[in-house]
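B., you asked whether I could sanity-check this one before it goes into the benchmark set. Here's the sequence:
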Amino acid sequence: MDFKDTIKQVAERVEKMKNNLNTEEATKNALIMPFIQALGYDVFDPLEVVPEYICDIGTKKGEKIDYAIIKDGKPVILIECKHWGQNLNLHDNQLLRYFNVSNSKFGILTNGVLYRFYTDLSIANKMDEIPFLEINMENLTDDVIEELRKFHKSYFDLETIMSVATELKYTNELKKLFASEFTSPNPEFVKYFAKQIYGGSVTSKVLDMFTELTKKTLQNYINDKIKDKLKSVIEQDSQAESKENIDSSQQEYEIRALPAGVVFMSEDGTIVTTQEEIEAFYIVRSILRQFIDVTRITYRDSQSYFSIFIDNNSRKPVCRLFLNSNKNKQIVFFSDDKKEVLKYKIEALDDIYKFSEQLITSINKYINN
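And here's what the prediction gave me:
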């Protein structure tokens, strides 16, 4: 079985089993050991995986970490485990102590759902405070799986992983910096642009003006890029679907002229599918296309709302959209029992992008089904 499929099977175990795991030991057996096995290591071979690995700390003898992965007789990865419901932020110091007295180059802190990967990029033989890679088994992406693949026994190469770790560390820090600047640009950042387009002195008043302008411009620039991409996707998908459906629908469209902004109307006129609803559907598809085959994302219109499903199956809802009212447009997400639980007001279709995480969460349970 391919590594990608194997990891996704482990992720499925997390969703199915975690609520029944009441202890740390149960978490280790049900979630973490399968994860280690997915990386190609035999958890029952003490020459590869050592449980309760001893890491003496100063005068404290017999201190043990949950697992050590061994290569050439030496520990290369230390793994500290917690119950799946534990907050990992409360336990990173424990891994740090073990890491600093070992010869290992990598440490993993996990609760079976989150996996945080650490190394010593800042100071040799001292674990960094910030992980260079964090994996959420409930929100796996292909990009993350490919990064994880480098830790597989068959591909493990210290120099390669250290190079990747360095890149990931600084990439993550740059992302945080960009996010901070987009939300609240600092004065030096604003001045850099203001001086290039403003002829006078950048006084505090001018700086205040350019701070707001910079913030709005950055947001508008990102939105424009998203819209351009979405427009391209919509045009490509529309052309493909039009070509596919033209034979079956041509006669109906020739017979009935539809009102402006309407793309479908039932015979009795009770169900009206608007261009706005179709555009919303394509926005959802554009958000989810990197996680699931877009052909599985379907819609169904009704008299009062517009539903988006996986596999055209009403038991696999992604979200429900209420777009018929100009003053009260909403997007709705569902609980596991398929009842409406979370309703959010949206002012415009672009607001759907704000709910990308909820949309991704909605489809995670259906991805491999």
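One thing to flag: The longest strand covers residues 313-322. Otherwise nothing jumped out at me.
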